Amino acid sequence: MDVEARTSAGSLRGARLRLSAAFWRRPWLKLLALLLPPVAAFGLVYVTSLGALLASAFWSSDAFTAKVIHSWSLTQFRAIFSLSDPTYLRIAIRTVLIAAAVTVTDAVLAFPIAYYMARLATRRMRSLLFVLILLPLWSSYLVRIYSWTTILSKTGPLNWLLNGLGLPDTHLAYTNWAMWIVFSYVWLPFMILPIYTAIERVPGNFFEASADLGARGPRTFRSVLLPLVFPAIVAGSIFTFSLTLGDYITPLLVGGPGSLLIGNIVYENSSTNLAFAAAFAVVPIGVMGVYLAIARRLGAFEAV
Amino acid sequence: MRKRIRGRHLVLLALVALVGALVVPAVGVSKSSGLPTSIGKGEGALSLVEWAAYSDKSFAAKFEKTTGCKITRKDAGSSNEMFNLMHGGGGGGGGQYDLVSASGDASLRLIYAGDVAPVNVNLVPSWKDFLPAFKAPPHNTVKGVHYGISVQWGPNTLLYNTKKIKPAPTSWAAIYSAKYKGQITVPNNPIQIADAALYLQKSQPALGIKDPYELTKPQFAVVVALLKKQKGLLKRYWVYPADEIKDFASGDATIGATWPYQTLALQGAKVPVPVKEIIPKEGVTGWADTWMLGKKAAHPNCAYMWMAYVSTPRVQAQQAYVFGETPANPKACPFMNKISKGLCSQYHLDAPASYSKSIRFWKSPVADCGFGGRKDCMDIQAWNNAWAGITG
Q1: Could you tell me the pTM of the whole model?
Q2: Interface check B381 vs A, CB under 8 A
Q3: Three-state DSSP class for B282?
Q4: What is the predicted ipTM?
Q5: How many CA atoms lie within 13 A of B238 on its CB side?
Q6: Tell me, which fold does domain A75-302 have in CATH?
Q7: Between B88, B237, B385, which is nearest A271 by CB?
Q8: ∠ CA A208-A209-A213, rounded to 5°
Q9: What is the mean pLDDT of residues A115-124?
Q10: CB-side exposure of B283: number of CA atoms within 13 Å?
Q11: Within an 8 Å CB–CB cutoff, is residue A96 touching chain B?
């Protein structure tokens, strides 16, 4: 018995040694063993569902019972890109335009804030600003959007303030303008943080060197700061752009007649007409694909 | 479904069957095979997909206490959403939802999609007291098989702010009028097309619209054009009743299409909003709701207990008061008057035959024009697409 135990322990030890030797001899094997579980999980959960989505985009649904009919066709895409009934084309273009407007707005708003935080603010001020920027993210995104409906409503604080200053009412509630404001507000932190990181990484003596060469503020901004920070802006824009592209709650709460985005149509069709919802969901994937390709060209992935 | 037939139940069942046979000979228990013949022990939970306040605490609390069935609710904002909730997750309520308070524009779709199960009306004792029109209405009974228990019904009315809208409107024309641009609100629901069709049926008789749910292609095009024009005049399309209440309270909206529920909420608010609702001269569309049992309901016994409970006169009256709608059970009348004097006639429960006939109840638009042998009507898919085209 004693001998048996010893040999089995020995063979176990031998197997372990052989295994580690194999790993040592073939490094790719180690890499494979390390990566296989997460990649497999990723593949199963993410790629499979994405594949199912892409496949169902080529099916069709029965109008009355919503049953999916498994026959391959391009019917759904024809409905989306139909020029005779441009409803869905209009919605897709509106979504991309709003996402672009929000991205530009956030970049313009975030840059000075990030610059101030990274280069001018005292340590205390910087911490305070960080808290102020991140604190809203702790509260529910729904609550933040809903509070905007109150702010913008006819008898809300905004009009109260304007009336107090002797100005006329605004009619921002339930318009695309409201949607633009609210989107810009909710995604702003996602733009500030990457830009802040990038500005902080620019060495201070670059600014001094620029000044020594006779460049003033605007020239330094254009020729030194912006090229160095630009990849970070593009990285931040990936967040603001893609988050806007997929959202459907903000249009529902603050949008008006004619504020539907791609997400709303996907949501509304998700179980009555699954095939159509899937086909329309492919549109933002395509748009994001193009966007990411451009972002990569601009060097955004070096800043993430 | 678990069956528990004991002697006592059999006697009861025989009695119920006898009564059923006497009242409506067309419906028998024997024919509907596979139906439960008694309500077993409650499962301790009940999950509802409902219109907001359809299981209001004022009457649901007592149900929960006496049956031990703890209610969880999912409020839906539209018939499409209701259908999606029941049809999603594998269909039949996905084992997640037991009952759905489907309106007429969703109930037939749920039946044909196989998401709801036939029910034994004899397990709901108050069913035999219902108004004849709601015992086996075409929106929840197919070929003599009941797919649910009618609950309440009511009109889609015109709501306006009495301080801002003068003179008082008498016609649906008001919500298509440029005079109120930027102050109008209507439900975000494809069935809203029927409201426009009803208005055109009366204001443009040359179109030849007979039924607002049975529209031929040319008629449909005119209706959609009217709604597209209306879009430019709207403040917004409301999704949840709370949205409309909020907008009328804040003054963002002053006129719109509504349910009596919102009117009551605005009039009864802490700071009452000066609103009034009317039935315009063109008449109104309306809803007639049915509690339908999900095919995969996890708590069927609690579901039956709930259907039986909400059909009793007292609860019917309470629900009518909370939601501002009319019960299917006319025995609720004295209880309604006890809650608020004159409530019964306010909701026309004492004169139902003529009143309920004047309401064009929601139904799913189908290509064969209501199973009528024709083939030239626009179906629900066309309605949904057109609505997306109008609102999008």
Answers
A1: 0.76
A2: yes
A3: coil
A4: 0.72
A5: 22
A6: MetI-like fold (1.10.3720)
A7: B88
A8: 115
A9: 93
A10: 19
A11: no
**Contact call for B250 and A156, based on CB within 8 A:** yes
- Tens digit of each residue's pLDDT (9 = 90 or more) over A5-39: 555 666 788 888 888 888 888 888 888 888 888 88
Chain B segment 345-374 residues within 8 A of A by beta carbon are 364, 366
Q: Of B137, B43, B38, give the one whose Cα is nearest residue B99.
A: B43
Contact assignment for B234 to A153 by CB distance below 8 Å? no
Asked if B231 reaches chain A (Cβ–Cβ under 8 Å), the answer is: yes
pLDDT at residue B371, as a whole number? 58
Is A91 part of the contact surface with chain B (CB cutoff 8 Å)? yes
Q: Across chain B, where does the E strand assignment appear?
A: 45-51, 70-76, 99-102, 116-117, 141-142, 145-146, 149-155, 157-161, 184-187, 234-238, 255-258, 275-278, 284-294, 326-327, 359-361
Q: Say if B24 is an interface residue toward chain A (CB within 8 Å).
A: no
The whole-angstrom distance between A189's CA and the closest CA on chain B is 29
What domains, with CATH codes, occur in chain B? 7-151+289-350 (3.40.190.10), 157-258+363-391 (3.40.190.10)
A13 touching B (Cβ < 8 Å): no
What distance in Å separates the CA atoms of residue A259 and residue B191, rounded to the nearest whole number? 20
Q: Which parts of chain B register pLDDT below 70?
A: 1-33, 351-354, 370-373
pLDDT at A142 over 50: yes
Instruction: Please say whether the beta carbons of B314 and B331 come within 8 A.
Output: no
Residue B214: DSSP 8-state: B
**Spatial distance between the Cα atoms of B138 and B355, rounded to a whole number of angstroms:** 18
Q: Where are the alpha helices (DSSP H) in B141-216?
A: 192-203
Are A68 and A275 within 8 A, CB to CB?
A: yes
Chain B residues within an 8 Å CB radius of A252: 239
Tokens of A165: 């200053």
pLDDT at B24: 39
CA gap A47, A51 in Å, rounded: 6
Chain B residues lying within 8 Å of A154, measured CB to CB: 250-252
Q: What is the mean pLDDT of chain A?
A: 88
| Mean pLDDT of the A82-106 span | 92
Residue window 267-286, chain A: list those with CB within 8 Å of chain B.
268, 270-273
**Domain extents in chain A:** 2-56, 75-302
